[in-house]
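Appendix B, example 12.
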Amino acid sequence: MNEDRLSNVTPGDGRLSKNEKREAARDKARILRESQKKKDRRTKVLLQGGIIFASLAIVAIIALVIVNSVRPVGPGPRNMASDGILISEGFVAAESAALKSDDEPIPNERDEASGALAIQMYVDYLCPICGDFEATNGEYISSLVENGKTTVEIHPITILDRLSQGTKYSTRSANATACVANYSPDNFYDFHNLLFANQPAENSSGLDNDELIALTKEAGVKSASSIESCIKDQEFKSWVNASTARALNGPIPNSNIDKVEGTPTVLVNGLKYEGSVSDLASFQAFVLQATGADFNEQSTPTPTPTATPAG
């Protein structure tokens, strides 16, 4: 019984014998089975294709993750191997090789035998209390450096990005200082002072990149075009984030503190200044005391009636 014959008969046709009806039913069942097998094969092919496609997508995602995870670590700036830049007489920066952003920093050791005075400052350029400290004590610190036997080591960190309307001014300004340290280190101190002289208010958008670039030129930087590109590309952003994390997590070498808990954090010969940020006489007295103090890591800072500055 062929399919053409089956297609020409209808169920209940009284002209078919019992055997013919049985034969027709068998043929119809066979055709249905073959049709279902074809459908099952198509479904299987589509399913296998989907699994292969999904597998390839997963492989691609894994490959992307691996590529990103092995991407070279961002660079750190030259002359900031300690996570800060060391400025000495003549406002000349100490030279040091560039490290990768996640490399362990190399602290600058103080020459205690020479009686040199070492000032370290951890600052966020959006921090208003840092601005107050700079306005009060900046000229005094500059005079100490000018007279020799005093170094100032500046550590730009970023903790106030949330207060710049999404522009991440703290990070951008810290990156800009790293750009100057890398390409024109002897102009760093002037640029640092200009950032505070032109400090934007908290909860503002801060200075834009063009304004930061203009300040680098006002500071008289060399390699101005390289610095401009560095600021726009945020060349040292990963280093800024990594060095900030190191400061906030500690340790802080050659000091009597474990970590930075706010800005400004000012250390004189390793001792943390706890006095008023807007009282020059208080800071001068602390400097004299720290100069005559026998430094050791267990020393404690002399308390004063004012609260600890925090950014």
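The CA atoms of residues 82 and 107 lie 5 Å apart. Confidence is low (pLDDT under 50) at residues 1-13, 63-71, 294-311.
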